[in-house]
Amino acid sequence: MEGGDLGGGKRARAACGGYICFEDEAGFTRRPPKGRTWGRRGRTPVVTVSGRRSGRLSVAGLIAMRPGSRTRLCHRLRTHPAGKGQRRSMDERDFIALVDGVHHLVKAPIILVWDRLNTHGSHAMRELVAERTWLTVFLLPAYSPDLNPVEWVWAHVKRSLANLAVVALDRLEALVRNRLKRLQYRPEILDGFIAGTRLTLDTPTSP
C-alpha cells in the first residue's frame, strides 16, 4: 500500500487516465435518524421503535470520478443479524469486492482514497492491494471526514430516512438501496458532493 498522504509516486503517475475513487462506510439500524418535522403546537411528535436488538446494516459506498467522464456511485451492503458473537461490520473481502466491481465497470486503473479504518490498513488488506497492479491506495489524514465526498452521501441518505421507523432489517436494506440507486442516476448531485470537499485535481509532475 502506498504512503499515508495524497502525494505523488510512480504508481500514482502510472494510474493517470484512470479513476479517482473515494470510499467510506456507514451503519444503519432500525432506530431512525432524528429529523425536523411538523407537529401540533405543544405536542412533540414521537416515533415508536423497538428496544430490542435487531441487527445492523453495513454499507460501503464508493464515488468514482474522472475528468470528462460521468461520476459514478457504487455500493455494497451486508446485513448483520442480532446475536452474540455476530460480526457487525464489513471485512477486507467485502471492501476489496466493491473495488473489484468498480474496476470491472470502469475498466481503468483506480486511485483509491479512504480513511484510516483498521480494516483498510490491515496486513490482509495490504496483501490484497499488492495483488492488484491497477490499484493505488492513499490514506486520508486522520479525522478529516470533510475531505471525503462519500460522507455527504450518508448525510443525504440518512436525512431521507429521518423519523422513519421500519419493522424488519430487510425492509431497511430495501430503503437504503432505493436511496442509493436514486443517487446513481443523479451524477450532478455526486459532483456537488465532490465540490463540497474543495479538493482539486493536479497533474502529477516528473521528478
TrEMBL record:
<protein>
    <submittedName>
        <fullName>Putative transposase</fullName>
    </submittedName>
</protein>
<dbReference type="Pfam" id="PF13358">
    <property type="entry name" value="DDE_3"/>
</dbReference>
<dbReference type="GO" id="GO:0003676">
    <property type="term" value="F:nucleic acid binding"/>
</dbReference>
<feature type="domain" description="Tc1-like transposase DDE">
    <location>
        <begin position="20"/>
        <end position="163"/>
    </location>
</feature>
<dbReference type="InterPro" id="IPR038717">
    <property type="entry name" value="Tc1-like_DDE_dom"/>
</dbReference>
<dbReference type="InterPro" id="IPR036397">
    <property type="entry name" value="RNaseH_sf"/>
</dbReference>
